[in-house]
């Protein structure tokens, strides 16, 4: 088998996860291409079910026949380990040495403190001995001198221990900040792909193949950069992608693309059910299901003959619960059963000496279990839950009579139960007849309303049972959920490595990207993409390390039509705000995200940009313009009107003056609001008496809520000049009524 090197060419980052594409070249040896190759160095967070391979360039008869995932274990030399790992190991060794010296000094100090003179016991009838003062003083002086020296060493070693602990913590953080692609383990575990080609094939030129796989641990959010000149007459909007990845491999010099599509969403053609009018008919069988071929057991006759001499031990399984309840025995039979259990066990497995019951920890041997009904899968009855397994009809086992009598009753009881079992197990035997294959079983299943479960149509999750399983061999069945991907793809690893733990740790590190806080004002692509999916390709190759941090990658320049407009609502806020109307003239949708606004050579602010589809228009706020000033004055008059004075006339006068201190003309939109009369109030009237210059009702942009009664002046004020506007409107209402909140509304 040839191991070929591969190069990561392109990466497409989806809303969650990424799709990577690797390319490798096969060179012919002795005029032939190999029939099997191996691609190593794949990330450990690879999803094994996403592996795809195809031939891009090469002979016409070169095809990829099979593709299997496996593992690759590498033992790198010391020179390939990063310097941070060597520094970490040196810090650990230094801390261990200092800790050992400190513990040794502390043990010596403890021993010296226990070094005190001992006084012998006084004997009766003898005078007390004279104390050796010279020796005691010499011992005390020795202990004090040694303790002073050792305590000084202890203080110095404690300082060294504290410094070594801080150094070790620093080196650990440096290692944690490394890219996840720079593995610091002595034994490195990678994924690998084993490709079987339609070879060997005679060829004189190289063949180029592509391997695709999906990995977890990648995210992206859109960001934008808007550059405007001081005049605000034109601008450039660039789309950027903030990418975060911890997949286990660095993306260096790759063609990068981002997509709003979900990598986990299944794209399957829906199965539409037909609606029939007329006589009721049974639903047609689902396509894709095929009954086991007749004579399936004959295919394993050779296997059974070869393994009959050394049968494999089958682990004991708990018997399924019975589907039928046996009738309760009579009183005399119940009493007999309470007296006989140990006697039956002793008779079956050998009589115990003295008639004593055998130990419970050594149960008697059970008869070999019958083969389960040969079912080709799980079935649903009328769309309900899967039916419980049924017991197969087992022959009655005749037990020899136990010592102490009762054999006749035992035989009668066994015969009675055998008859009951034969009668009650007719339905399971019918199921066995159906499952043996053929049209009869199919017709019986349809008559009973049985439908194959949905799990039996998911062929990616089905596995073929082993030939040693006489009940399920030759049939596809759902793969157990407890079997992980690592155990399924573990085929050729001969080094003792904790594969399952390392793979689970790799997926845990990959999922940690969802805990990282995104940039301010950012919105996940799936939330802002509305009902469409889009893909954006970067203009140049990019580098994104696998360090778990956000990296900004420029994607494309979006052609926009900019229109600067100053907005002011003097009745609420006298200040004037700068806004830019963005018209998306590109075929690409602009997703919601933060936009960094640069005015000239100075960074202005960061604003949230809403989702902007092709051809849509949105308004982007740029803050307050101090060079524009607005003054608003109001006057209110209230009088009686009507022929008999039975109505109230409210006259509102508003005058607005705008001063432009900029060096260029400014287009300003000044908003006012007049009273709006609901349709239910027929006796109220609002009339616009005098408006100079004329105003108009505004048309709200997409995403902006309309304001009832809003009017807008759109004026152009030259540089260094002023403009005045005034409006008068009259509200007429019955004298018995008053406006909510007071008649004065300006």
Automatic annotation (TrEMBL):
Residues 211-734 form the DUF4139 domain. Residues 325-337 have a biased composition (Acidic residues). Residues 11-112 form the DUF4140 domain. Pfam families: DUF4139 (PF13598), DUF4140 (PF13600). Residues 372-402 have a biased composition (Low complexity). It comes from the Bacteria. Residues 360-371 have a biased composition (Pro residues). InterPro entries: CHP02231, DUF4139, DUF4140. Residues 313-413 are annotated as: Disordered. PANTHER family: DUF4139 DOMAIN-CONTAINING PROTEIN (PTHR31005:SF8). This is DUF4139 domain-containing protein. It comes from Corallococcus interemptor.
